[in-house]
Amino acid sequence: MITFFIIIIAIIAILFICCLIERQIIVTRKQKICLKNLPHAFNGLKIIQISDLHHRKFGENQSRIIKRVQKLNPDIIAVTGDLISRDMRDFSSVQAFCRTLSGIAPVLFSMGNHELDLPFDIQSDYINTLKNAGVHVLLNSSYLLRHDNSVLCFTGALLDTSIYRNENFKYDSLNPYSLHELQMTIGVRSECTVLLAHNPLIFDVYADWNADLILSGHVHGGVIRLPFIGGLLSPERKFFPKFTRGLYRSGSSQLYVSAGLGKLRLFNPPEINLIMLLSES
Question: Rounded CA gap, 185 and 22, in Å?
Answer without folding.
Answer: 39
